[in-house]
């Protein structure tokens, strides 16, 4: 048999006092006689009283909950970002409701609808690779629901953003490869409609032009962050009339798969082809050769997004903010050609 849920009314009846007195005592108010307050708290503890959070939230018109939409939770970058969001939410005494779009525009719209229907106080989003229009987010801002984008953002929506220095770090990574003597540098980037993909590509191109290295369209591959096409585009690059002598990969897992394929083809890393990854996964240090990568501060990005959102929730008149979290180049054996 289900145990009866204890309410404020039950405590008030047992002690022969008003519900308002019990409510004030449980809320920690000081306008109650200390002895009365002690009796109320002792009885509440004895009866294992739990406050009705739903009722409190409805009364305050707040759910004390942050909604989060990420492309996928299996991706370590987003897992770490969620960790940063959760930490900030815990410090603020807020709950977190997490949805994943599985890189689907349709799923992302459904996620958004579910979170809005659940009356979350604000939403943090990193858009899917399929998302090339922003109408579903525009309607959200029109309703006055606080919104923060992180990593994958929209430029045409008036909302706060947390991003990394994609342009600068792509330029720095490309210049590192040039400094190693590489002249035929291939670049694997994400979908063209995503802001971070375009920023990284611009950094790569500007680095080549700065150092008078020829730009070849055949060395630029547009892919997806979660792609089953790594072997296909690796074979394509290796079969070019002038094979690349360096590859700047879309992420570390793609880089490691490319290295595996190239080794099986008899190529040496980095002597024949230098390889640079992105995200600085833990395993980069333990493969042979160890993988150079871009350290993408996911936890800090997530924490900053949550901090900004909580500020927007508490201060509705705040203007949108853009915060840039710096990424860093980590040099290991896979690019040390010299």
Automatic annotation (TrEMBL):
Annotated keywords: DNA-binding, Transcription, Transcription regulation
Top-rank taxon, per record: Bacteria
Pfam family, one: LacI
Entry keyword DNA-binding: yes
Chain ranges of the HTH lacI-type domain: 6-60
GO molecular function, one term: DNA-binding transcription factor activity
Keyword Transcription regulation: yes
InterPro entries: HTH_LacI, LacI/GalR-like_sensor, Lambda_DNA-bd_dom_sf, Peripla_BP_I
Listed SMART domains: HTH_LACI
Protein name: Transcriptional regulator, LacI family
Organism encoding this protein: Ohtaekwangia koreensis
């Amino acid at each position: 048999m289900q145990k009866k849920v204890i309410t404020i009314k039950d405590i008030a009846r047992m002690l022969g006092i008003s519900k308002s007195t019990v409510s004030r005592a449980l809320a920690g108010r000081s306008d109650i006689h200390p002895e009365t307050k002690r009796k109320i708290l002792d009885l509440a503890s004895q009866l294992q009283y739990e406050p009705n959070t739903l009722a409190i939230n409805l009364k305050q018109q707040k759910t004390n909950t942050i909604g989060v939409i990420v492309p996928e939770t299996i991706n370590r970058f987003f897992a770490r970002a969620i960790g940063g969001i959760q930490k900030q939410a815990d410090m603020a005494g807020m709950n977190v409701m997490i949805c994943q779009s599985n890189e689907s525009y349709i799923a992302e719209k459904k996620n958004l609808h579910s979170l809005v229907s659940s009356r979350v106080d604000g939403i943090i989003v990193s858009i899917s690779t399929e998302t090339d229009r922003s109408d579903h987010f525009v309607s959200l801002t029109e309703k006055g629901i606080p919104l923060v984008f992180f990593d994958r953002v929209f430029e045409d929506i008036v909302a706060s953003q947390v991003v990394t220095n994609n342009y600068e770090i792509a330029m720095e990574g490309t210049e590192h490869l040039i400094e190693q003597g590489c002249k035929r540098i291939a670049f694997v980037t994400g979908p063209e409609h995503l802001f971070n993909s375009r920023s990284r590509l611009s950094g790569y191109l500007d680095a080549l032009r700065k150092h008078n290295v020829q730009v070849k369209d055949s060395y630029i591959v547009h892919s997806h962050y979660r792609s089953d096409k790594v072997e296909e585009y690796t074979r394509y690059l290796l079969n070019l009339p002038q094979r690349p002598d360096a590859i700047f990969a879309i992420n570390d897992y793609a880089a490691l798969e490319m290295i595996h394929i190239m080794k099986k083809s008899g190529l040496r890393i980095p002597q024949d082809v230098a390889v640079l990854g992105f995200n600085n996964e833990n395993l980069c240090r333990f493969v042979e050769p160890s993988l150079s990568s871009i350290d993408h501060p996911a936890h800090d990005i997530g924490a900053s997004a949550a901090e900004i959102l909580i500020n927007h929730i508490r201060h509705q008149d705040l203007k949108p903010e853009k915060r840039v979290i710096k990424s860093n180049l980590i040099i290991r054996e896979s690019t040390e050609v010299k």
